[in-house]
From TrEMBL:
PROSITE patterns per UniProt: SAM_MT_TPMT
Organism per entry: Microthyrium microscopicum
Keywords in alphabetical order: Methyltransferase, Phosphoprotein, S-adenosyl-L-methionine, Transferase
MF GO annotations: S-adenosylmethionine-dependent methyltransferase activity
Gene3D superfamilies: Vaccinia Virus protein VP39
Protein name: S-adenosyl-L-methionine-dependent methyltransferase
InterPro entries referenced in this protein's UniProt entry, alphabetically: SAM-dependent_MTases_sf (IPR029063), TPMT (IPR008854)
Any GO BP annotation: methylation
Length: 177
């Protein structure tokens, strides 16, 4: 968990710059990422293990299930979903996050191939719409894993929330005001 001084610094940063992709990018550029655990979310792994319906793989029509991770950061959760058989898309507004995700996918290339899933990283603001085409979003996602960007929902999307992640970190929400 992030220290109190780190949380204070985050709070000050967002109070000054607003909660925008640019403000997040500035944190990446300062290499100030107190949220970074360099591993995947235990809640996601638990959910995938304990709910067979959340597994990826092929749909009944033979096409592959798709997953989205908004605000994916370094991309560990995207890799977990790709490994579970999804065509997984990680979305982040920071160039450095996308670079980290692409690098991580490269490192996991061999194991990903085994389940047929894939990992793709797209740089964009989740609340804009330009990225929807790049991420093939308009046909929908079978699973969206988010405990970062949007407790905030997108008004133009209909999201059916089936799983409420068990480890929502309200500390970051409190930094965002
Ligand atoms: C607190 S970090 C969490 C990263 C990752 N989910 C993790 O657990 O390590 C939030 C991430 O969301 C990204 N982000 C914040 N707002 C965003 C937005 N509107 N669109 C896309 N990405 C955003 C930031 O750049 C940052 O990488």
């Amino acid at each position: 968990m992030a220290s109190q001084p780190a949380l204070q610094r985050l709070k000050g940063h967002f109070a000054e710059s607003g909660n925008t992709p640019e403000a997040w990018s500035a944190l990446w550029e300062q290499d100030f990422k107190p949220w970074e655990r360099s591993t995947s979310s235990p809640a996601l792994i638990d959910a995938l293990k304990s709910h067979a319906t959340l597994q990826g793989g092929l749909r009944t029509n033979g096409t592959r299930k798709k997953a989205l991770v908004p605000g994916c950061g370094t991309g560990h959760d995207v890799i977990v979903l790709a490994d579970a058989g999804y065509d997984a898309v990680g979305l982040d507004g920071a160039d450095l996050a996308i670079e980290a995700g692409v690098k991580l996918a490269e490192e996991h290339k061999q194991e990903l191939g085994k389940n047929g899933g894939s990992a793709k990283f797209v740089k964009a603001d989740f609340f804009a719409s330009e990225w929807e085409k790049d991420a093939d979003a308009l046909s929908g996602f079978d699973l969206i894993y988010d405990y970062t960007v949007s407790q905030l929902t997108r008004s133009s999307w209909f999201m059916l929330i089936l799983v409420v992640p068990v480890c929502f970190e309200s500390i970051y929400a409190s930094c965002l005001g």
